[in-house]
Amino acid sequence: MRKRLNRREGCRVLRPDPRIWGNHHVTCREFADFMADYLSGELSHDIRVRFDEHLSVCPNCVTYLANYEKATALGRQAFQESDSTLAAGVPDELVKAILAARRS
Description:
Elements: H1 18-21, H2 28-33, H3 35-40, H4 45-57, H5 59-80, H6 92-103
């Protein structure tokens, strides 16, 4: 029987409930669902250890995590470089259309 995760009230995200995880091994789906919490350090020590154990045996999740970290870093970088010059050859009409869409 699959153990269920605890849902907090309102629009808060799901959080692993250590009372029901017991000896439960983290699945790839659970890792993906709680990856942001894992990276931000919001998981309890015991649950983080289970995530680390999963990463030690799952190369797919290691790759997924690495790609997620790269994507979020690129996203942050893109917003930090908002005043940088445009790449050569970008049509003025495209730039104007994007800026107009951002304003609306």
